[in-house]
Design a protein that fits this description.
The chain is mainly alpha-helical. It has one domain: Up-down Bundle (Glutathione S-transferase Yfyf (Class Pi), Chain A, domain 2). The chain has eight helices and no strands. The longest helix is centred in the middle third of the chain and has 28 residues. It is elongated, with a radius of gyration of 21 Å.
């Protein structure tokens, strides 16, 4: 789904933020709350992050997302609007994406093994959640029902595109398949996510080196 592209974008953004945080030196202000719950456009205190904070943020954000989805499901088809369906879905993606993006980054770059390992465990939980909602019949029905309303058919520009692409994403991700095949696909997607995270973890933790002579690095800068 769109989270694979979204994840790569977040990785570059959070690397920049993490680098800036590292330059704060002794200017530490220890938080009374989880640094992963941050306000818009504020500095994230990655240097104060612990594995417990990651667990807390993972559980809390997934719980909030599921509760928001349950509310979205219960809206009657004839009461659906862009704001209470499509905008709400986008808000759910955005809120959980903010937490997931930070945790994804920490699973790759945090210097502490415990924090990094917990981040990778949490990434598996998020991946399973994303796999579930891309094959969620209730969510698909909510979006599909809205797409067939008079309001949806009158949309233009980015709103019309958002509705169209969301329906297409669902159908390309498995809703053209039978229920039995969708369940099988979800198992496959979960396994792929698990293997992908394990592969990235192994790459991030590799401790290897090359031995070269001066001639072989001719042309590189002196600090190499």
């Amino acid at each position: 789904m769109k989270f694979r592209t979204f994840t790569l974008i977040l990785l570059f953004v959070f690397i920049a933020v993490f680098s800036f945080a590292a330059e704060r030196g002794n200017q530490k202000e220890y938080p009374v709350s989880n640094p992963l719950f941050y306000s818009f456009n504020s500095l994230i205190s990655f240097d104060q992050l612990t594995s417990d904070f990651i667990k807390e943020a993972t559980g809390s954000s997934l719980d909030e997302a599921n509760k928001s989805l349950q509310k979205l499901y219960t809206i009657p088809a004839d009461k659906r609007t862009f704001d209470n369906t499509m905008l709400e879905l986008d808000n759910i993606y955005n809120k959980i994406g903010n937490v997931y993006g930070s945790i994804y980054l920490m699973g790759n770059v945090h210097p502490d093994d415990e924090v990094r390992n917990q981040a990778n465990e949490s990434r598996q939980e998020f991946s399973k959640f994303f796999n579930e909602i891309q094959l969620d019949e209730n969510l698909y029905k909510a979006v599909k029902d809205y797409s067939q309303t008079a309001e949806a058919k009158s949309l233009t520009g980015y709103k019309a595109r958002f509705v169209q692409k969301t329906v297409e994403d669902f159908e390309r991700n498995g809703f053209a398949l039978s229920k039995e095949k969708r369940d099988e696909l979800k198992i496959i997607n979960d396994k792929l996510s698990e293997l992908g995270i394990l592969f990235q973890k192994n790459i991030a933790e590799v401790d290897d080196y090359l031995i070269v002579d001066e001639k072989e690095i001719d042309g590189l800068q002196d600090d190499y």
